[in-house]
Fold this sequence. Notes:
Layout: E1 7-12, H1 19-29, E2 38-40, E3 54-56, H2 59-67, E4 71-77, E5 81-86, H3 87-95, E6 99-103, H4 106-115, E7 121-127, H5 131-140, H6 146-166, E8 169-172, H7 178-192
Parallel strand pairs: 1-6, 1-7, 2-3, 7-8
Antiparallel strand pairs: 2-5, 4-5
Helix pairs in contact: 1-7
The structure holds guanosine-5'-monophosphate.
Guanosine-5'-monophosphate binds near residues 15, 77 and 104.
Amino acid sequence: MSEIKGKLFLIVGPSGVGKGTIIKLIKEKYPDFDYPISATTRDIRPGERDGETYHFINKLKFEKMIKNGELLEYAIVHGEEYYGTLKKSIMKALTAGHVVIREVDMQGCESIKRVLPKENLVSIFLTVPNKEDLISRILKRGKLPQEEIKRRMESAEKEFAKGGRICDYPVDSLNGKVDECFKQVEKIILDEAKGIYPYPV
Ligand code: 5GP
């Protein structure tokens, strides 16, 4: 793995904590970072398009990708569907010396930690000081079925238990303070990316 020059930033944290919002803000301000999309077997949601948020594939195809070694890591998230990062796109960006941003669950974070060199990996754990905030945010997402809310809360418990221990940087994502959270994440990324970003011309 000595050819890796870039850095992968994993954004981790329980459902409802605001990972998507923070990544969206980073993407708007830093379009020259890489934002590889993952594969999943979950259903496509209204407003999503295949190839934009995820590659939506069926279980058979996903399992074939596992067998062919095409995934850097994969996990069954919220006890149901497969999610996995694509080795090819992430390694290509890292080899090119890029800053790469990807959201994964805690299992994905642990797996990637086992395969990538420490110096090429940074994990940022978005969290909330109390679980009630998180429950209300998950409920506010609207039409999630009761079963799915239950599964998400169960995964959230596990993420809370491990996040601070496994990840490099915990960052509080407080209700109504998206800007503060974004600034902290931005600072971590820019500090950690010194020497590779801004990219040499
Ligand atoms: P959603 O279905 O709401 O987009 O994502 C559900 C969860 O899947 C996210 O909170 C994130 O933790 C996880 N996830 C998204 N992409 C990946 C991936 O490529 N690998 C793993 N392990 N988890 C992912």
